[in-house]
Structures are given as C-alpha cells and as structure tokens.
Amino acid sequence: MPVHLRADDGDYAPNILCPGDPLRAKYIAETFFDGGARQVNGERGMLGFTGTFEGAPISVQSTGMGCPSAGIVFEELIMLGAQRLVRVGTCGGLQERVALADVVVGATASADDRNPIRYAGMEGYAPAATFTLCETAATLAREGGANVHVGPIVTSGLFYDPDATTFGRWKRLGHLGVEMEAAMMYTIAAVKEVEAVAIMTCSDLLFESGDTQRISDDELKRGVDDMMRLACRVAVS
Ligand code: HPA
Predict the structure, then answer these.
(1) Mean pLDDT per segment of 10 residues, for the chain of length 237 residues?
(2) Looking at domain 15-235, does it have CATH number 3.40.50.150?
(3) Fewest Cβ atoms closer than 10 Å to its Cβ: which of 4, 94, 151, 211?
C-alpha cells in the first residue's frame, strides 16, 4: 500500500481521471459515473473514487496543485496499476484564438518547473501526451460541438509569478495555455510506459499586458461539466 493513496491493487481501474481538486473528484464520481461508485482514498483529503462510466471501469483521483503534489499521486496510481491517466482541469489561455470555456488538449507540456526535468534526468526532455489520446479527445470534443485546440501548453511551478513577462514569452513560442501539473504527468507516464493526456477548460485569459479576464462561475461550470464528460469518454475509449 503506497504512502499517500491508502489503497490496494484492484481498488483503482486502469483508466483514471486526475483533477487537481478533491471536491471535483467527488463531483465527477457522483455526476458522471454510473451509480454506485465507491471511495478508494481519503488520505490527506485527496479523494479518489472507482466506479463505471457507461459500463466501463473508471476511477477518479485528485492530485492537489503543482508538480510535487501531483507527481506523488501519479507515481502511486501507477504503482496501483494505472495504465491511462487523463488530467482534467482548467488552464489560463495564452493565444487570442483560445476563448473562455474552450477545450485545450495539451499535445506537449513545456516544464516551467524543475521537477519534470529532474525526474526525466535529461535537460532537453520534451514532455508529450499520448498521440492517440489527443486524437480521440479532439474528435470527441468536435463531435460534441466544443471549440477545441490541440497543441503545446506550459506547466508552471508558479501561479503567482512575480515576472510579468513570463506569459508573453510562452505565448510567443505558440503555447495555448498554462496550468500546473501536465508536464509532471507526461514525464512520469513516459518513464513508466503508461498513457497520458491533459484535457482542460480555459478558465482565464492571460494578456501580455499582465491583465487577466476570468470566466463567470456559470460559464465555468458549463464548460467544466462538458469537458469532464468528454474526459470520461476519452478515459474509457
Ligand atoms: N496559471 C496556472 N494555472 C492555471 C491558471 C493560471 O493562470 N489558470 C487556470 N489554471
């Protein structure tokens, strides 16, 4: 039994959704899974549940925020038999064509955080998603009527970055959005030979001036609900 996920082999399904927020994990299990999901972890409030989605086995496990916390959870999920990790969450949008509530699929996740590179042990390492999961996410999102973008994202170690130029510089390198866990997930998944993709709803627009625009609570809920249903489909595809 791992240290932080107090579960045994077989408690998690091979395909696992990974939101940052523990209460979002509970919401996903209660709202999108078929009835009868059971809690498989509560250690440190990091809620995890296992059930089925449209009859297929699935789990959801919260990761907390940032690479160090999320890395512990990804590692322990793999110890417990995970084969496919699907991060679900929000990102800040960096490009003009990315609008609030759009879906962003991270084909790659540049590591603006030392942890993924330290884990990979190679300075030039480029964390990347599983291509077939990106394809499936894009196809299912379009079929569902979403505005979906597939491309590079950046995983930051800082939510409150004192350098106001950082976002603009990632934007100029073509990055669609910024979040805080995907590069760690892609790196651990690569080393451990499991599949991974990060699917996000754009919750903020980050302008080069340093200004930001936040989505309304109603629009965020609608966007995140649609994205989580999509992520369940990708997880069991
Ligand atoms: N930074 C990092 N992660 C995020 C942001 C952000 O601005 N918005 C949503 N997730």
Answers:
(1) 97 98 98 97 98 98 98 98 98 98 98 98 98 98 97 98 95 98 99 98 94 95 96 98
(2) no
(3) 211
What gap in Å lies between CA 59 and CA 134, rounded to an integer?
Answer: 20
User: Is 204 in the active site?
Assistant: yes
Q: How far is the CA of 90 from the centre of ligand 1 (A)?
A: 7
102, 113, 161, 204: which one is catalytic?
204
- With left for phi above 0 and alpha for psi between -120 and 50, is residue 175 left, alpha or beta? beta
Rg value, the chain, Cα = 16
pTM of the model: 0.97
Residue 118: its pLDDT value, please? 98
- Establish whether residue 92 lines the binding site of ligand 1, counting it when its CB lies within 6 angstroms of any ligand atom: yes
Q: Ligand 1 in contact with 203 (CB < 6 A)? A: yes
Using the mean position of ligand 1's atoms as its centre, give its distance from the Cα of residue 26 in Å. Answer: 21
For 152, other C-beta atoms within 10 Å of its C-beta total 18
CB 147, CB 93: distance < 8 Å: no
